[in-house]
Amino acid sequence: MHETGIEGYYAVRDGKKLYYGYTTGTCAAAAAKAAALMLATGQIPLYVDLLTPKGIALSLEVLEPELQPRRARCAIRKYSGDDPDVTDGVLVYADVTLEETPGITVDGGEGVGRVTKPGLKQAIGEAAINPVPKRMIAGALERVSEDYGITAGLKAVISIPAGVELAKRTFNPRLGIVGGISVLGTSGIVEPMSEAALVESIGLELRQKYALGCRRIIIAPGNYGADFIRSLCHVEETELVKCSNFIGQTIDMAVSAGFSELLFVSHIGKFIKLTGGIMNTHSREADARAELMAACALRAGSTAETARRLLDCLTTDEMLEVLRAAGLLEKTMAVAAQRVDYYLNYRAKGQITIGAAVFSNETGMLFTTGPAPEWLAELKANEEKSNENTEERT
């Protein structure tokens, strides 16, 4: 397992094993932990163990270690498995120092971008280290401090020297992230994203669930949608499929499999694209979120000035705040609902009953289409009935 740290984890698609990798966030957390261990023990480990948020335990090789009296530095090599990723093979460094002030500090160095525009999860001037990786890094440092009785503060500076050039091949400059790439990851693990294989795996999962007796299916593009629907009501695993960015192809495959009803549960960041008929929501296919939100707002009675403000936004959460401030959020979402409903049914061609529940992390539910309200109410009622029966038995 030591060659990559993740041998044995893979998905089988088209008869081929596609191996998992691990994120830049995992590399950063592992490097920070190894550097902290060097400070705590005075010894240089060959490997460092890390448990990812996904629950997969890794043992990663520690590279280029440097140890000084109050400073340690090392690197972990990024491994993307069979996922096409520009960061595969890059070195992710952590420079950890003992500080006079107690506490944990995490920052970015060379090759880690800096945020220069509002609307992202980090404030202007902060390093582009996403929340989950930042918690992973801080958590690793906290555990070493507790295990070895370190009373001084620990500061970790994450750097990815290759990120300066790699950033030119990403959307970071457009988003206002300059000087490098972002440190990413929500599960700590990179799952292979070969498009043909991924689409086929979605189709296979749909056919399997149909064969098990499921006749209506909930589709979430990713973890956000899956977590949101589970926060509303209990959903069986047999009722839920993740479709990544492949909205249109998933509708086609659900129809082909024989399902009678389909409910999408999606963050507005993906489904605002459906208001323009975009059925593959990956940013490399189309990223017209601001333009489409502005179009919906204009249909809802927006002024030209508000529309221009929307066009200047970087994220859909920022757009929603502009709409809320203008008193247009509900009207704009109503327009968006009409457009989403039209294009979903246009793709389905009357062969399946289809609806959507669209939300944002900050606001919650934004709008529903088609049979979504009735379906969600039924799921909630079933959950409450199940809970009542459980209480009676106990």
Provide a descriptive summary of the structure in words.
This protein starts with 9 loop residues before the first strand and ends with a helix. By secondary structure, it is an alpha/beta fold. It contains 13 helices and 20 strands. Helix 1 packs parallel to helix 2 (131-148), helix 5 (195-211) packs parallel to helix 7 and helix 10 packs antiparallel against helix 11. The longest helix is centred in the last third of the chain and has 22 residues, at 372-393. A hairpin with a 2-residue loop joins strand 1 (10-13) and strand 2 (16-19).
Structural class: alpha/beta
Number of strands: 20
Q: What would the average pLDDT be, to the nearest integer?
A: 90
Gyration radius from CA atoms, angstroms: 23 Å
Q: Main sheet? A: 5 strands, mixed
Work out the helix count.
Answer: 13
Strand content: 15-25%
Shape: globular
Helix content: 25-40%
Q: Could you name the ranges where pLDDT drops below 50 across 5 or more consecutive residues?
A: none
- The strand line-up of the biggest sheet is 6-7-8-12-9
Give the distance, in angstroms, between the N- and C-terminal Cα atoms. Answer: 46 Å
List the topology elements.
Layout: E1 10-13, E2 16-19, E3 21-22, H1 24-41, E4 47-51, E5 57-61, E6 63-68, E7 71-77, E8 91-99, E9 104-108, E10 111-112, E11 114-115, H2 131-148, E12 153-159, H3 163-166, H4 172-175, E13 177-178, E14 180-181, E15 189-190, H5 195-211, E16 216-220, H6 223-232, E17 240-242, H7 247-257, E18 261-267, H8 268-271, H9 289-299, H10 304-311, H11 316-325, H12 329-348, E19 353-360, E20 364-369, H13 372-393
Parallel strand pairs: 9-12, 10-14, 16-17, 16-18, 18-19
Antiparallel strand pairs: 1-2, 3-15, 4-5, 6-7, 7-8, 8-12, 11-13, 19-20
